[in-house]
Specification:
By secondary structure, the chain is of the alpha/beta class. It is built from 9 helices and 10 strands. It folds into 2 domains: 85 residues, CRISPR-associated endonuclease Cas1, N-terminal domain (Ribosomal Protein L15, Chain: K, domain 2); 178 residues, CRISPR-associated endonuclease Cas1, C-terminal domain (Four Helix Bundle (Hemerythrin (Met), subunit A)), CATH 1.20.120.920. The strands form 3 sheets. Strands 3-7-9-10 form a 4-stranded mixed sheet, with helices on both faces. Strands 6-5-4-8 form a 4-stranded mixed sheet.
């Protein structure tokens, strides 16, 4: 916003349109529970209706707001979130379940057709799954294996990874056991893992939507609203949030979900996850080996565009 005086005593106010902040420059997520989200002074305002406290969240600085039970959102806040590309995600207590989300732009027809073509062709889908396997385990997937066979191999390796982390951090491990309808039934380590993966799923879904793809069209996972989210998040899960979950569980905190959220935000920052997510998505899909459709001239631009580099080809600009 800026002002200009055309004549003495007259001030004309000009409002500059809001521009979404690139994903890589944002804070990953903020959890809000039992409060009211509104807009004050051009920013998100979280009001604690019990204690009368307020917290201002700068416009566009957060990738997604995770809304826990007891949270209300005003029309103005939802409108502002849409303008700046902040994803609103309605979650269960401690984020253990993801119920719904408000799209920051949503899928684009050209990206959606590209993703769907890869998923519907068995040969192309297998190429994408093999690429995900290679990126997750840092080795090529076994030859002449179907998607179901690769899924079984992955499951076996994942169980061994959990056991390895349990030994490393000295945490009692009885397997991945939890009740998505009752947070309190799980032991501390399962509570920590659930909270950690919820954080990762939130920022991953935001990145997928911002890039113009559909969370439901998966390759290794299928048939669920967040199948592609699970596909992408699983590639980096054991390098980021799972170690954080075991580290927190080993300390036996009184509020494991809160401690895990803080640890996940730190892990996202140290690993620069927000900067890597969209390129990771594109690399996975490129494994199919088909040309991405040309973007129609009247296509909706990306919800959270990346700024154009000021450097020439071959030159690093910042």
């Amino acid at each position: 916003m800026w002002s200009h005086a055309d004549s003495p005593g007259v001030v004309a106010m000009v409002f500059v349109p809001l521009k979404p902040v690139p994903i890589k420059d944002r804070t990953s997520m903020v959890f809000v529970g039992r409060g009211r989200i509104d807009v004050r002074d051009g920013a998100f305002c979280v009001v604690d209706e019990i204690h009368g406290e307020r917290l201002l969240i700068p416009v566009g600085s957060v990738l997604c707001l995770m809304l826990e039970p007891g949270t209300r959102v005003s029309h103005a806040a939802i409108k502002l979130a849409a303008e700046v590309g902040t994803l609103l995600i309605w979650v269960g207590e401690a984020g253990v379940r993801l119920y719904a989300s408000g799209q920051p732009g949503g899928a684009r027809s050209d990206r959606l057709l590209y993703q769907a073509r890869l998923a519907l062709d068995d040969d192309l889908r297998l190429k994408v799954v093999r690429k995900m396997f290679q990126m997750r385990f840092s080795e090529a997937a076994p030859q002449r294996r179907s998607i179901d066979q690769l899924r079984g191999i992955e499951g076996s390796r994942v169980r061994k990874l959990y056991e390895s982390f349990a030994r490393q951090y000295g945490v009692k491990w009885q397997g991945r056991r939890y009740d998505p309808k009752d947070w309190s039934k799980g032991d501390v380590i399962n509570q920590c893992i659930s909270a950690a993966t919820s954080c990762l799923y939130g920022v991953t879904e935001a990145a997928i939507l911002a890039a113009g793809y559909a969370p439901a069209i998966g390759f290794l996972h299928s048939g669920k609203p967040l199948s592609f989210v699970y596909d992408i998040a699983d590639i980096i899960k054991f390098d980021t949030v799972v170690p954080a979950a075991f580290e927190i569980a080993a300390k036996h905190p009184s509020k494991p979900d809160r401690a895990v959220r803080i640890a996940c935000r730190e892990a996202f920052r140290e690993k620069r996850i927000l900067k890597k997510l969209i390129p990771l998505i594109e690399e996975v899909l490129a494994a199919g080996g088909i040309t991405k459709p040309e973007t129609p001239l009247d296509a909706q631009p990306p919800a959270i565009p990346e700024p154009r580099s000021i450097g020439n080809d071959g030159h690093r600009s910042g």
